[in-house]
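Exercise: predict the structure of this protein bound to zinc ion.
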Amino acid sequence: MTDMLYAPWREEFILGPKEEGCIFCQPGKRKGVREFILHKSRRAFVVMNRYPYNSGHLMVVPNRHLAQLEELSSAERNELMSLVALSSRVLNETIKPEGLNLGMNLGRAAGAGIAGHLHIHLVPRWVGDTNFMPVLFDTRVVSVDTIKLCRKLKAAFRKSA
Ligand SMILES: [Zn+2]
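Solution:
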């Protein structure tokens, strides 16, 4: 239990119950994803994790359904990294983490929950946060705090973008 954040981008809890098809394709039409989209750019978007590993756990996702980094165009790669940097800025300005984990799981064997559609995780960290994370993992519900934080982050993205 105490090692829950050892691999902070493990995906078993990330999207909750399994849904048909790819949850990242046409996210605007997906209930449970749509509400958590924080920012959209031309080729990619930022979405808040409904079942976060930590407060403010975000994912940066390309619009196209691609599994491998090398399939991305250079414009897509640039845009993904720009959104990672923007997300980092927004998190630093709003919830002020003491650290940030960035990670990708490419392929099922690497732990990808949505193996067909690559995405980058950003997990804000605080000193000592491993102590309370196991409690959060067991809740499996979208908490009021998650919804409040989502609103706050959306506003911050609007301001920063
Ligand atoms: Zn997809």
